[in-house]
From TrEMBL:
InterPro entries: Dcc1. It comes from the Eukaryota. GO terms for biological process: DNA replication. This is Sister chromatid cohesion protein DCC1. Keywords: DNA replication. Belongs to the DCC1 family. Pfam families: Dcc1 (PF09724).
Length: 220
């Protein structure tokens, strides 16, 4: 008897999971809500949970970041493994921080907004199936930040003149590109150019192209 009850419950569960909403179901809901279907847009989007949920992360888009995406401009995360990551456009830096939301956020590819759906014209109602591929309670929040110059200053090689240079110096050297690619400079390319000018840094041509900055000279 217990086995039979289990099979019945299993069958009921399967029926609920595989149930497909029909136009009659939608009309019934509209009636219960006391709405006039003639005043509603003729498209109903029915949501279903997808069979798999890809490992996506939601990223907040500030106006600057959204514009960079539209223009196809540079957009890159920078930082070392133990750093707090920053997101950089070609000319701005944003601190990236994980934030929680009290409401669940659904990721639904192809979902249409009201402005994309024609107004009611007396035609029959249409159903479209939309699949939920992700449910999120966290997202990456972006806050515009100023460049961090402490590490940059520590990476540059002090320079007091050619007479003090040593051929056997093993100090690690950097170019502008390697500073950006290594995560040593957590800032945008434009901000790095400005910071290097402020630090009176310049590039030396030779066997090693390195960024160095002028060391203040004290006269006695």
């Amino acid at each position: 008897m217990a086995s039979k009850n289990y099979e019945n419950k299993k069958q009921e569960t399967t029926e609920i999971v595989t149930y497909v909403r029909t136009i009659d179901d939608v009309k019934t809901v509209i009636g219960h809500a006391k709405l006039d279907s003639g005043e509603l847009r003729p498209l109903t989007q029915v949501l279903y949970m997808g069979e798999s949920t890809p490992d996506y992360r939601l990223l907040e888009l500030t106006p600057e970041v959204a514009q960079a995406l539209r223009e196809g401009s540079e957009l890159v995360f920078r930082g070392k493994r133990d750093d707090r990551a920053v997101l950089c456009t070609s000319d701005a830096t944003f601190e990236a921080k994980e934030a929680e939301t009290s409401n669940s956020l659904l990721l639904i590819p192809g979902l249409k907004f009201p402005a994309e759906i024609p107004a009611a014209d007396g035609s029959d109602r249409i159903l479209e199936r939309k699949e939920i591929v992700g449910v999120f309670y966290e997202y990456i929040e972006l806050r515009k930040s100023t460049p961090r110059l402490g590490r940059l200053r520590s990476l540059l090689v002090p320079y007091a003149g050619p007479e003090l240079e040593r051929d056997d110096d093993t100090t690690q050297s950097f170019t502008t590109e390697s500073l950006l690619e290594s995560g040593g400079a957590q800032m945008s390319r434009e901000e790095l150019d400005v910071a290097l000018r402020e630090l009176t840094a310049f590039q030396v041509d030779g066997t090693r192209k390195e960024l160095i900055y002028l060391q203040s000279i004290q006269y006695h």
